[in-house]
Amino acid sequence: MTGYAYREIEAPEYSLSVEIRGYNSRFLEINAGLPPFLYGIESWVRGLLSDCTGRGKVEVSVRLREYGGKVGVSVNTEAARAYQKAIDSLAAAIGTGEKAGLSHILEMEGVLESDRKRDDERYRKLIEPVLREAIAEFESEREREGKHTEEDILAYLSEMEKDLLSVSSLAPSLEESIKENLRSRFAELLGGAADENRVLAETAVLLVKYTISEEISRLSAHFGEFRAETARDGRPGKKLDFLCQEINREINTIGSKTPQLEVSRAVVRMKNALENIREQLRNVE
What we know:
The protein is of the alpha+beta class.
């Protein structure tokens, strides 16, 4: 979601520049910096940016300087009198005996007010080509960055898929280990009189509690959906965030169910890769 673009044009009658900056953010936030005489087209500027941005913080700055444009100037006499009175009062209080001069009063805020003749439609037509060029550059840069981010994310996903295959290959031995341990315990307690049906029933109960075949199946499905969503959706960020939550849940369940050292190591590697994916998803719409 990060990006930068800058476009400017210099014409005999005016100079114009447009700057766009993008930052990572979970939600869409567009801040437009325009001079006061362009406030009438601010919503239009924001609308053009929101059309190409799903989420992120975007700052757009438009600077327009006209040469020889018609400007009306008015004098706020009430403000001038108030400033004069305040300055004279201050001078008397500190004993300088000075009076407020015109040059001092003219420097005060709000005494002189300029009113540029506004023509929103004219300004919109003037700004639109440059703004659209800047937006196109902004999108292009974000797409380039997005391609690199996608490659990194899918590389981490491939690591997780390899670890899942490793866990899957160990699952049958885990189930067999549960069966053998249970048989040994029954044999110790009951000797040769152990009821095979009882052994099988208790084994089934433990397998329900400790087997990880369902978690492996769901995790594999989540990985497949993650790849598919990345390929088909131009703005997959929110869906991928949700899938990461589901993936994390299944990895944690596998870790809590399985005492095998190799499975535990694979779980740690998957959690580390998932954390890296989540970090990268902050750059994805």
